Amino acid sequence: MLYLFGFERIGVAVGDLYFVDPDPGEHQEGAEHGVRLEIRRLAPGELKGSIYSARPIVVDQLIWRVDLLESVDGTPGSFDRTHHHPGSSGWEPDRRVFDEDLSAEPLKWLGERLADLDGVLRQSGVDPAEVGADDAASLRETAPEIVDTVRRLLDRVRAGELGTAPAGGPAGSVRSSWL
Fold it and tell me: Which residues contact 143 (CB under 8 A, 6 or more apart)?
């Protein structure tokens, strides 16, 4: 499942995720699942036809990522693999950062970060002047809706409807997600 919230120059992508790290760190072994949220650069594409044609939308490079993940074999609601990536280098996220506040109250933490786009951008090494003039205000206004979407997706992951292993997938490295 993939949700996209688009603003002027940034977008927020939210989707379910099933992931097996091929080279896990200590205490990160085994499958994990949950919800991934990314702030991405967003751009309108050129029209491909008449003035009435659908416009391509480019959901471009990663700025910031939050992974609300749990061990598949763990306790639902534990958020034992929950982390964020404060920045990125091109398409690659920076290292995982585990934050006690994020794991303790992930939806509250997420809502606070979404309401502070300038702070997230600065932490990510992106000049807030690179985004649209109204992006921060629009994201702040939409943050409760985005957090509610994340909550609903987490419920569906825990119900076994989303964030599941791909059928017949390989035994090693596996990733099933739009994001």
Answer: 111, 114, 115
